[in-house]
Amino acid sequence: MTTVRIAHVEPWPGKRGLRGHGFRVFSFLVVLADDAGGRALPVWLNGPEGHGLFRRDDRPHPEPAEAITAGLLRTAGVAVTGVDIDELDAALTTGPRHGGHDALPLARIEFTAAGTAEARQMTTRIGYALALAAAAGAPIQVAERVMDQLAVPAQDDLLGQFTRDVPVPRPKRHRFGRLFRHPRPA
What we know:
By secondary structure, the chain is α+β, with helices and mostly antiparallel strands. It has helices spanning 65-75, 126-136, 144-150, 158-163; strands at residues 2-16, 23-34, 39-46, 55-56, 59-60, 79-85, 106-112, 119-125, 140-142, 152-153.
């Protein structure tokens, strides 16, 4: 297993919002960095999975459920001891996915409960597991074979390295677009 850190989380726009203005966040790019090996592993998360990892000005926005959960677990005497990623579909590393996809990214959360020395595990979606690890300060480990197959040499600009060739959605041209335009000021 290779210990990695969450080096970057970037929201990626999806469809344009109402009347072609703004964007809805469609997915999140999460870059896992293997600092010792000089490698980076991009993971594209769809839907709400990346929300718990997204931060602005070093604060979550809004406070993610995972941070609240980590606090509750600590209070109850449960320690999150790590997150392990044993398998990862290559499709999750190439860019945001549109439509249905069979790749169900899973990770194992390892924890110990108060009064027991025995470590236990729970399997959950990778985005939620990563957010809980970040909130609890637990290490993240990726199987060496996954890193060998899917990680690439890290560049200085991690964001650009993985988003350079990913298209941003364009506004849709509506057949009746003139009906919905705002009048031009005189």
